[in-house]
Specification:
The protein is mainly beta and 645 residues long. It has a domain of 219 residues. The protein is 7% helix and 47% strand. The strands form five sheets. The chain has a twelve-stranded parallel beta barrel. An eight-stranded antiparallel β-sheet has the order 38-35-40-33-42-49-44-47, with no helix packed on it. Strands 37-36-39-34-41-50 form a six-stranded antiparallel β-sheet, with no helix packed on it. The longest helix is centred in the first third of the chain and has 9 residues. The termini are far apart.
Length: 645
């Protein structure tokens, strides 16, 4: 037993311990260190640091009010007595990582539990209110379990954090039992990396605040994180803004330790997204390193009343982990989705497979589909899709033919077009038009970081217009950093652009090409224009745009180009056509959500041409890339196109 009094404990705590040696060696009540109706942080922390093997937060005349607390002693049991609420102090927790209780420091054998009705509570609404001037954060967790071993948290109601109800990272042998985890800002629980975790009889409900907003989100931060021997039993995931269960394995690859996750007798219902959303890897990592192995299994689980559908599996390859469902009910009645279960390999150029259903039932409204499958041309279902699946619809129960569905989506590798990006040679750029537009046209809305390129025809001052707006109301950003370079890659310094309207005067000593690198965070939408010069957005990488009236994108095709490659990646359905310099449609994409890659052969010409990517119909968000052999700079104005010398 660790009986050392840590230095962070107060002098007052040491004095009390000197008077109560018998209690300190075994069990202490926090009230022995004092109770203050306005702030009991010092007493709570001193009790945690006392070396006692059992610390009882005993009932007082009011709540235990505290600033952030930390448990760093091994072999300690912290008990909230019946009727006790440990509550975050209002007007505190301004640090972006301030947690109500953090368990950390490489320690082991820790229990945090309640008796009867015991509550941990933070003040989510305060942290979300811009008037209170809290820095934007997703990490003001109620309980944070970091790099520790043999931890149990049980018999508690955990409410209203500014992050996750429970956060687990770098831990081993974790048990969570009989928890009600409700009304959190980011997630009910976020397991990041854990070796051995059992979650029994827990409810993860009513998450709303900042994405992902799920009941749980199993999302690793690195390739060497792990989810090994993880079991959920008799848990409920209900009423969350997004998914009930989200498994987002973007950082995992075949070099990651194989996953082993089981859900038994769990229920996900009434969630705004899917009952279960599963992204098993990102396309670039899968293609380079392979997909993570192992298994995820659901037994006797039920999914019902989820508005986005029952199950969504993305980026799943034929040589990745095994996913199986046994004796599960997928109730998709009253959901918004066109299908109960959705397979999405739209961004991954690999075939789908590795899924088994054992004695499962899908419940559907009339006219809805059992499965939907979204993939790029040529990608199909090439691996295992097997088992027993019954469909209940309109009072009838029929067996679903999984083999026939797989055969309908047979892979066609000969039809796959692989996109190749191209580099921008800034010293060779120039305006395509002899007379640049006097008044620049604004680009479509751009989300995330982007680069805006301006080609000025000669010396002078040019007005560059920035227009921005927050697409998330609680984004705590007032300015955005912009870095400026010329065509020779000379760093011309940086400046801050405030959110809203801002005009920048670009002073040029002669014809030149400038690029504005805008470090826009997620949650902002930017539009830009430049007067008297050619202005374009760089589209050598994914360029995320917001639909509207003016989204047609014009770009230069060099005279010696033999192929023009363009990629369209919809978030919502989009119709797109590729038009050559004569106005002829050379490629067309129907109104759809699936990615499309246009690859058009052409004859060499005597001079450079301007082609256009047009969008007759756009719902909202989409992305584009210009590949070989076009110049990856797109302009809303055909007279503002930037081309090659």
């Amino acid at each position: 037993m660790n009986r050392k009094i840590k230095s962070k404990g107060s002098f007052f705590a040491a004095a009390v311990l000197g008077m109560l040696p018998a209690l300190a060696a075994d069990c202490v009540k926090v009230s022995s260190f004092g109770w203050n109706a306005e702030d009991s942080t010092a007493a709570l922390q001193a009790a945690f640091d006392s070396g006692a093997s059992k610390v009882i937060i005993d009932r007082q005349a009011g709540d235990w009010i505290s600033r952030p607390l930390v448990i760093t002693n091994s072999n300690i049991e912290v008990v909230l007595a019946d009727g006790v609420t440990l509550k975050a102090k209002r007007g505190e927790f301004y640090g972006r990582n301030d947690c109500l209780v953090r368990i950390t420091g490489g320690i082991s054998s820790i229990v945090l539990r309640g008796e009867g009705k015991a509550v941990l509570k933070m003040n989510k609404a305060d942290y979300q209110n811009p008037k209170n001037k809290y820095s934007f954060s997703e990490w003001r967790h109620a309980v944070s379990i970091l790099k520790v071993q043999n931890v149990t948290v049980k018999d508690l109601t955990i409410l209203s954090s500014g992050g996750d109800g429970v956060y687990v990272n770098g831990a081993k042998d974790v048990t969570l039992e009989n928890l009600v985890v409700r009304d959190h800002h980011r997630q009910g629980m976020s397991p990041i990396s854990v070796d051995g975790m059992t979650v029994r009889r827990c409810c993860f409900n009513d998450t709303v605040g900042v994405p992902p907003q799920c009941g749980i989100d199993m999302e690793p931060n690195r390739e060497d994180n792990r989810f090994v021997n993880v079991v959920y039993e008799d848990c409920v995931f209900n009423g969350n803004r997004s998914h009930g269960i989200d498994m987002h394995f973007g950082h995992f690859t075949a070099r990651t330790e194989p996953v082993s996750i089981i859900y038994r007798r769990c229920k996900a219902y009434g969630n705004g997204g899917c009952g279960v959303s599963f992204m098993t890897g990102t396309p670039n990592r899968i293609e380079e390193f392979g997909q993570v192995k192992g298994f995820v299994r659901f037994e006797n689980c039920e999914f019902a009343g989820n508005h986005g559908g029952v199950l969504n599996i993305r980026n799943h390859s034929t040589n990745g982990m095994d996913i199986s469902f046994a004796d599960c009910i997928f109730d998709a009645r009253d959901s918004r989705g066109q299908s109960a279960i959705y397979f999405d390999n739209n961004r991954y150029l690999g075939d789908f497979g590795g899924l088994t259903f054992e004695r499962c039932t899908v419940k559907l409204d009339k006219g809805r589909k059992v499965f939907g499958f979204l993939a790029q041309t040529g990608v199909g279902i090439g691996g295992k899709l097997s088992g027993d699946l019954a469909v209940e619809c309109d009072g009838k129960l029929e067996k679903f033919d999984l083999a026939a569905f797989a055969a309908k989506h047979k892979p066609r590798p000969e039809r796959i077009v692989r996109f190749k990006s191209t580099a921008v040679e800034f010293p060779k750029l120039k305006p395509m038009s002899a007379s640049c537009p006097v008044k620049g046209k604004f680009t479509p809305g751009v989300s995330r970081s982007f680069i805006y390129v301006v080609a000025v025809p000669g010396p002078g001052e040019y007005k560059v217009h920035f227009r921005s707006a927050k697409s998330k109301g609680n984004l705590a950003v007032d300015t955005v950093m912009v870095q400026l370079f010329d065509k020779s890659d000379t760093d011309l310094g940086s400046f801050q652009v405030p959110i809203g309207k801002f005009d920048y005067t670009l002073k040029a000593s002669g014809a030149n090409v400038y690029r504005f690198e805008v470090a826009s965070p997620r949650g902002l939408m930017f539009r830009m224009a430049c007067d008297g010069a050619a202005g374009a957005l760089m589209a050598d990488k994914i360029l995320r745009l917001r639909g509207g009236k003016d989204v047609d994108s014009h770009f230069c095709v060099p005279a010696n180009a033999e192929t023009v490659t363009v990629k369209v990646s919809p978030e919502e359905p989009v119709q797109a056509i590729l038009v050559d310099a004569s106005g002829r449609t050379v490629a067309e994409m129907p109104y759809q959500r699936a990615n499309e890659v246009f690859s058009v052969k052409r004859q060499k010409t005597l001079s450079n041409e301007v082609w256009a990517l047009k969008f007759p119909r756009v719902d909202e968000d989409f992305a584009i890339q210009i590949g070989v052999d076009g110049v990856p700079l797109v302009s809303i104005d055909p007279d503002g196109v930037i081309g090659m010398k």
